[in-house]
Design a protein that fits this description.
CATH topology: Rossmann fold
CATH class: Alpha Beta
Largest sheet: 6 strands, parallel
Helix content: 25-40%
């Protein structure tokens, strides 16, 4: 069985770490499948590159066009304002579809690397059940490594993972503009 890598914490760079492992794998002609929970944007670098990295790279998104949170509000990030919506039934449905898709990918494609991006946050927000995620991790193909990302990783995943990295924000500008190719 492959290794389980977990990137969590409130600092930026969890998905970026996972994408670095994906790029390294692709460089060795190893297959990579990325499943993004809670994400939908097609203008992000990791999505836009998909056709250029075929046949080794696939990316799928299971989120709706909305910034989600536990309560409705407006936030500013990188010089842009975002309306935060609270969860809806469709968010839970999409997260479950993403997890079912991950099971199918593992069974049919057996990728060398499977990235479950933002799965920790989906678990934290109770869009998925930890038992279902642990079951998936217990049934990995022998050659598949898995990367789990997102804030607020549950202790069960921390215990299950072989490698756990806490991404902590030490310093960031109070005001900055989102940079294409860096933040998205």
């Amino acid at each position: 069985m492959g290794y389980i890598y977990l990137y969590t914490g409130i600092g930026a760079g969890k998905t970026t770490n996972a994408l670095g492992l994906a790029l390294r794998s692709i460089g060795h002609k190893r297959s990579v499948v990325i499943i993004q929970f809670l994400k939908w944007r097609k203008d992000i670098g990791e999505y836009k590159i998909k056709d250029s990295l075929k046949p080794y790279y696939e990316i799928y998104q299971f989120g709706r066009p909305a910034w989600l949170g536990e309560k409705e509000m407006t936030v500013s990030l990188g010089g842009q304002k975002f309306q935060i919506e609270s969860f809806k039934d469709v968010d839970k449905k999409l997260a479950k579809e993403g997890l079912e898709f991950a099971k199918k990918v593992l069974k049919e494609k057996k990728p060398h690397l499977l990235v479950l991006d933002e799965i920790n946050l989906a678990l934290h927000w109770k869009l998925l059940d930890i038992k279902d995620v642990l079951e998936l991790l217990d049934n990995l193909p022998e050659k598949t490594d898995v990367v789990l990302t997102g804030r607020y990783a549950p202790k069960e995943l921390i215990e299950k993972a072989d490698f756990v990295n806490l991404v902590e924000e030490v310093k960031a500008p109070k005001e900055f503009k989102l940079t294409k190719g860096i933040q998205y």
